[in-house]
Amino acid sequence: MPFETTTQVRFAHIDAAGIVFYPRYFEMLNAAVEDWCAQALGQDFRTLHLHHRIGVPTVKLDVEFVSPSELGDVLTISISPREVGRSSCHLHVVFSGDDRVRLQANVVLVCMDLQTRRATPWPQDMRSNILEGIVHAV
């Protein structure tokens, strides 16, 4: 089962056409990754960033905008890990609402040492939880 979280489309997310302005999806995506780290991987961003000095920046993003979202829509964001490397993680992300896909993305995150700003191996507990998500997705 993929990790799922929800968000509501707010006034700050929409443009003059009344639909989500595309960069706002990226903010929603980052918030969903933050939820995934805290709820599925056992490491909230506060602990990762302030105590472990680790970040998980997006280094690759391939997005297809399938259907527009409007003010008030409630979107489900599904995150499915596909592959984990020493310091990288490939995710498939789907935003959906009202039984239709709004956005699909393939995302690559990298575990990064915030001091050196270089890739670093995933902490073992996080890596194990990512792998568990991959196994359950198969």
From TrEMBL:
One of its GO terms (molecular function) is fatty acyl-CoA hydrolase activity. Pfam families: 4HBT_2. InterPro entries: 4-hydroxybenzoyl-CoA_TE, HotDog_dom_sf. Signal peptide: none annotated. This is 4-hydroxybenzoyl-CoA thioesterase.
